[in-house]
């Protein structure tokens, strides 16, 4: 069966509360890149991952190449959920026709990927994304999955595992996220999973903002490997246009993520609870 990482091999104690604050979606836009970089340099964000097919990939790849001290993964991408901001595969869409709509862009919804995507085309495209990242000088610490599409089915999970083995990189697996994409009980013997994953939610964002929710999450963290998934960006004109008619994980949400995780009071809360940072770079040592 799947198991939690053996963190004692890294010198941690069973009672240690370990936290990764991970920024998804770098490369999505200029705003996303700028906020991610500032959050890494001035906040408590200690991990991020890059979307290779997006127009602003090269900007973030340049940063990653010249700042290898930061934990950096490849955010394997099979969907484009935005209404008017579109991107598609790294490969010519004629080579991976099951991954695109009739205009050659990635499908907007996970359900379309689950129904239409052929696993062999998924692997071919994701290999191309990894190869492009490596060629850009990125030295990835892990692989993860945009919108957790690689958790949608056992066939997609098999591709995810294969990529991790082939490139000798840990993959982000979570039984919580697998339940959220309606694929429970799909983990296998040998899979390593994080202890707990925390994300903001739209109801809280709309009503009181995300500060209170994140504060409670930090106060209630339990021992083990915890991940808070955030999506920092600035609520500027560019990001508003990217997020047209998409308030869930929209520009306002992303600004709240940036604000909370660069606030000195948040860093103080971690110190008060003796919460220790952990990164995929450390996890590499015990996962391969």
Automatic annotation (TrEMBL):
The keyword Lipoprotein does not apply. Pfam families: YdjC (PF04794). GO terms for biological process: carbohydrate metabolic process. One of its GO terms (molecular function) is hydrolase activity. Its cofactor is Mg(2+). It comes from the Bacteria. Keywords: Carbohydrate metabolism, Hydrolase, Magnesium, Metal-binding. InterPro entries: Glyco_hydro/deAcase_b/a-brl, YdjC-like. This is ChbG/HpnK family deacetylase.
């Amino acid at each position: 069966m799947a198991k939690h990482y053996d963190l004692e091999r890294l010198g941690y104690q069973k009672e240690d509360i370990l936290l990764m604050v991970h920024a998804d979606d770098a490369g999505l836009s200029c705003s996303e890149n700028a906020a991610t970089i500032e959050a890494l340099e001035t906040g408590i964000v200690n991990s991020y991952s890059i979307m290779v097919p997006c127009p602003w990939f090269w900007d973030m790849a340049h940063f990653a190449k010249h700042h290898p001290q930061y934990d950096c993964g490849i955010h394997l991408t099979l969907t484009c959920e935005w209404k008017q901001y579109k991107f598609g595969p790294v490969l010519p869409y004629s080579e991976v026709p099951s991954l695109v709509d009739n205009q050659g862009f990635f499908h907007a919804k996970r359900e379309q990927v689950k129904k239409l995507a052929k696993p062999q085309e998924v692997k071919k495209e994701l290999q191309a994304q990894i190869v492009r990242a490596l060629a850009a000088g990125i030295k990835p610490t892990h692989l993860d999955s945009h919108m957790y599409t690689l958790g949608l089915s056992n066939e997609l999970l098999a591709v995810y595992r294969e990529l991790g083995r082939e490139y000798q990189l840990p993959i982000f697996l979570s039984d919580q996220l697998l339940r959220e994409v309606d694929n429970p009980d799909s983990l296998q013997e040998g899979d390593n999973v994080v202890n707990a994953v925390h994300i903001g939610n739209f109801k809280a964002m709309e009503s009181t903002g995300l500060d209170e929710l994140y504060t409670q999450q930090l106060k209630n963290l339990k021992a083990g490997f915890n991940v808070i998934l955030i999506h920092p960006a600035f609520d500027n004109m560019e990001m508003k246009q990217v997020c047209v008619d998409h308030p869930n994980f929209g520009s306002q949400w992303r600004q709240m993520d940036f604000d909370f995780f660069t606030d000195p009071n948040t860093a103080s809360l971690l110190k008060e609870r003796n919460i220790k940072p952990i990164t995929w770079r450390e996890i590499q040592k015990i996962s391969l």
